Request: fold
Amino acid sequence: MSSRGRVLITGVAGFIGFHLASRLLARGDEVMGLDNLNDYYDPSLKRARLAQLEGRPGFEFALLDVADRDGMAALFASGGITRVVHLAAQAGVRYSLVNPWAYVEANLQGFMTILEGCRHHPVEHLVFASSSSVYGLNTAMPFAVHHNVDHPVSLYAATKKANELMAHTYAHLYDIPCTGLRFFTVYGPWGRPDMALFKFTYAILRGDPIEVYNFGRMRRDFTYIDDIVEGVVRVLEKPAAANPAWSGDAPDPGSSPAPYRLYNIGNNNPVELEEFIAAIERAVGRPARRTYLPMQPGDVPATYADVDELARDVGFRPATSIDDGVRAFVAWYRAYYGV
Reply:
C-alpha cells in the first residue's frame, strides 16, 4: 500500500467513478472501488467499464451495495482508506417519480453508511457528489453556492440537498473535512444511456425521432467528463477547511465554521438544447427527426454554474467546447457499439 493509503471510490463502475478511478490509477494512487452493478441501466456497460480497471496495479474492487450497513462497516474496518469520493447514488430525475424508495435507500441510507464509516475510521477528506438539481426553483443565474437552495422540484434533488446537510452535520460534530460537488449535466465517452446525449445519438443513428422536452426551450451547462474529473482530483487534494469569516448573522450556504465546502463544477456556459442537438448532428453526420414535448415534471428550464469559488480555491475552470466533447462521445459510441 502506498504511504498515502487508498482512495475509496463508491460507484466505481458508474460514468464518473470509472473515469475518476482511471485518472487516479494512472498517476499512481491506490483505489478501492465499490459498486453494486445494479440494473438501473444496462449492467453490461458497467461491467465493461469495470473490465477496463480490473487488473491494473493498485486497483481493488468490492461488489457491495453502499446501503449495506454491515458490509460498509466491514469495508471501512479493513483499514487503509484515507480519502473517500462518494459517487454512488440512485440517479435520474424522472425515475424518482416512478421509484422514490430507491432514492431513499441509495441516496440517504447509503450516504449515512459513508458518514458513519468516516466518523469511526477518520479520513483526510470526504468528497461527495451533489447535483445542479438542488437549485430547483431558483432563477437567478448563474447558480452560485452562496444561493439558498430550499426549493427542490424532484425527490432526487431533495436527497442531494439532504446529503449536503448530513455532511455538514458530520463535519461540525466530528471534524470530518467534507466537500460537496454540484455537478452540471456531465457527458462524454462511456456516458450513461439514460442521458440525452446517449439517447439522441442512438436514435439519430437508427433514424428514429428524438424527444425534445419543453419544445426545445431548454438550456443546460453541459460539462465534459474530463473537466469533471480534473475538478474532482483538484478538490480531493484540498481538504475542506473552516471559514473563519463565516457568520451566523448572515450564514453563507457555501462554507461553514466547520471543515465543510461546496463547489459547482460546470462549464459556466449554458447551451441551448437545439444547439446541443446540432452538435450531435454534425458529429454523427445525419439530421435528427424531432418530436417536441412539454416540460417533464421535476425538470428545470435552465442550468448555469458559477465556478468562481472552484477557480479561486483550486485554480480550475471547465472549458471543453460542446463540439469537441460531443465529437469525442460519438467516436466512442461508434467504436463501442460498432456502428
The radius of gyration is 19 Å. The mean pLDDT is 96.
